[in-house]
Write a structure and sequence with these properties.
By secondary structure, the chain is an alpha+beta fold. Among the domains are: 2-59 and 141-353, Zincin-like; 493-589, 2-Layer Sandwich (Beta-lactamase Inhibitory Protein, Chain:B, domain 1), CATH 3.30.1450. Helix content is 46%, strand content 16%. It is built from 20 helices and 18 strands. It has helices spanning 2-29, 36-41, 45-51, 85-97, 105-162, 170-183, 214-219, 222-237, 240-253, 258-281, 288-298, 321-330, 336-354, 387-395, 397-400, 405-412, 429-433, 504-514, 519-525, 585-589; strands at residues 57-58, 165-166, 190-194, 201-203, 209-213, 312-313, 356-357, 385-386, 417-422, 437-445, 451-458, 461-469, 483-488, 493-494, 533-537, 542-550, 559-566, 569-577. The longest helix has 58 residues, at 105-162. The chain is elongated.
Amino acid sequence: MMINFSKLLLIMSLKTSILILIIFTIKFLFNNFFTAKTHYMIWFLLFISLTVPYTAQSNISIYNIPKYFNQNKYISKMQLSEDNFSNDINNYNNTIRYPYSNNNKSMSKEKDSTSTISKKNQNAFNIFESLKNIFAYIWLLGFLLLSLIVFIKTIHFNKLINIEEDILDTQKLSILNKCKEVLGINQHLRLIKTTKFSTPSLVGIFSPKILLPEQILYNFDNEQLELILLHELSHLKRKDILTNWIILTYQLIYWFNPIIWIGFYKMKNDMEVACDAYVLNNLKKEKHISYGKVIIDLLDYLSKPSFIPVSTNILENKYELKRRIIMIKKFKKTSYKLSFISFLLIVLVGCSSISEPENNTNTTPNEISKQNPSNIIEENNEYPLGLPDASKILNNKNWIIGKDYEFIWKTLGTPYVNTYYVDTKGLTSNEILNNLYNETIYPIKSDEESSALYVFMENEKIVNMKIDEFSGIPSNNWKDSDYKVNFYTSGDIDKKDLTDLEKNSNFVEFKKEFLNKSLSDFKNKFNLTHGSNEAFNKEGDLKLTVYPIIGKDKPSPFVGIYILSENNIIKDIKIDKSDLQLERLDEHFSLTNKK
């Protein structure tokens, strides 16, 4: 379990690193357009990215980009065009339809080659698994060590605060109450004089305290002190202490990723600038310059800070001072229109960088956990699978989801049946072929009740897998469509029984013999269980069965018998290419193209 958790951390860490680089780019491009608040708020996307492992799919996800550079798709036999049919069908039948023929020497060589590659991949996989185990324990050790350090430092810090004295000066407390009234704060908090820290700070979530260094109390007048208190109270109003605790938690969890630490460092810098803007919003225009001068004057008192686990400091480092002063000098109250546009831009960045790619393609960051198919099942590519193999596949389906059609054939071998759910109404041929849903079934060897591994695909990408009861026929409950088409691995008619059937005279006699007769009688005559292709219309009363014709002279069929039946009665018979083309289903079912 810990190994899986650390693996998930790596994936989310990688995604967040990409998000941070995107945020840096967006902030650079829109630097002058963004308000101080927008510069800060965009960093909250990190919290979502580091917390939510799985998000919704979106067609605007940046992880969709790689698929536009990889347009080479595997072409299945159901999609062969008429132009390349005669050139490709023989090669196709040798590699897919009859992949395990004893006479196919090329496939034997390919299997030996695959075996060698599988062994190499197995070794690579074993090394990868070992590295995952090592990382899991290193991560846990680092997390516990850093957490212990923070815990000890926090206890030490609280002891230091507890021995410091409260400020009871009525004038100073009056200034504090005035500032609270300006910002609408009713929460009680303490003012503490400290000699341990050099910069004013706000600490504590439930019992907030403002730390004021002794030398600042003596060297700053009441007007300057009021501006300092307004800044720290603004942090309280904006819940920045809580935000800093969340940041610290993520830094401990993702301690191994320096990019995430840099991102949070920049977020805290933007937090201070956003807090300045909040103060300026509550100050009169003539006091803006005075506020900027106070921040500059505090620089003289800034020394190497003592460790404060979680706090907000009006001045933590001098490197951001110039940026803050420029913002104060140019500050203008933000219009609602600009705020709304900025908000929409943040939403757009979040949706594009945090969401998953559409159809969960292979190029998502989940590739960090990609394994090799040979590690899932043994070198037995013929169905049925064994129950242990099928369970392994299902347990590891996270890295299988998103793979393509070819992956299933190469990994699991020839299925018992491949079922396509096809919509044709109002669609062009290309639209039909580009909007396909299909279900591939691999029966499982088991001593118990019959079951099978079901693989569901959309547009030739795997979208889901499950193990369910196997009835021997494909289910019809996954997709409601115009047609359901089953592609089996058997169902040929031996040509010796149908010599020269393609010739018109023989075909007329053949058609006359079976037309308006029972489809069952036809199947019994030729000892057939089902066709290589079977298609059903939406209502389920019309059925199209295809029987490829083979013979000793042509072991790879080029033609087939198409039988259209209605409630088991044959209504039409014709000769066509042996592979049923999905884009021609309306034509085949129309009963108008008789031969």
